[in-house]
Design brief:
59% of the residues lie in helices and 15% in strands. α1 packs across α3 and α4 packs across α5 (119-126). The longest helix has 43 residues, at 131-173. The chain folds into 2 domains: 4-128, Alpha-Beta Plaits; 129-174. It has a 5-stranded antiparallel beta sheet with strand order 2-3-1-4-5, sandwiched between helices. The protein is α+β, with helices and mostly antiparallel strands and 174 residues long. β4 (106-112) and β5 form a beta hairpin. It is built from 6 helices and 5 strands.
Length: 174
């Protein structure tokens, strides 16, 4: 059991983490054994994502004044909140993938950019490309434009040289 000062400290820390998070996802973990929960924590930790099991009353206090307050109606039963500061897609992808193999994990709701997400929207978010993949595509596209431009520009002198060679060949043949 936590004493009052420990609860206040937990609420303050959690409030800070929730307010700094780009995405927050609320899950129901009841029915998951310790090994599965440890596996989930490990997968999330590898992507820099935090998971916190906390009492609903403390979570309600911590989420006051943040986007996570939009999920207040779902603060019932055993909950864990999943928080990511950097990548909103990673936690969604991990949770959706984990839930496929573990029916006991229930994704209740999420908050992203001030919008409440239902489980179907979180599943859609999980199918999006990650930040690194999107940046890679952007770099490829930005690199392709100058490369294509150089090819077009080099085509003009190349064609001119081909025309001169054709004229030379024609005069030599005559």
């Amino acid at each position: 059991m936590l004493n009052i000062s420990q609860k206040k400290e937990l609420v303050e820390r959690l409030a800070k983490e929730v307010s700094e998070s780009e995405i927050s996802i609320l899950i129901d973990y009841k029915g998951l054994d310790v090994l599965k929960m440890t596996d989930l924590r490990s997968q999330l930790r590898k992507e820099g994502v935090r998971i916190e099991v906390v009492k609903n009353s403390l979570l309600k206090r911590a989420s006051e004044g943040t986007d996570a307050a939009l999920m207040e109606d779902f603060y019932k039963g055993p909950n864990a909140i999943v928080l990511s500061k950097d990548d909103p897609i990673a936690p969604a992808r991990i949770l959706v993938g984990f839930a496929k193999g573990n029916e006991k994990l229930e994704i209740k709701a999420g908050v992203f950019s001030g919008k409440l997400l239902n489980p179907d929207e979180i599943k859609q978010l999980a199918t999006m490309l990650s930040r690194e993949e999107l940046l890679g595509k952007l770099v490829y596209t930005l690199n392709a434009v100058p490369t294509s431009f150089v090819n077009v520009l080099s085509g003009v002198p190349r064609s001119f040289v081909n025309v001169l060679n054709a004229i030379k060949d024609q005069k030599e043949a005559a």
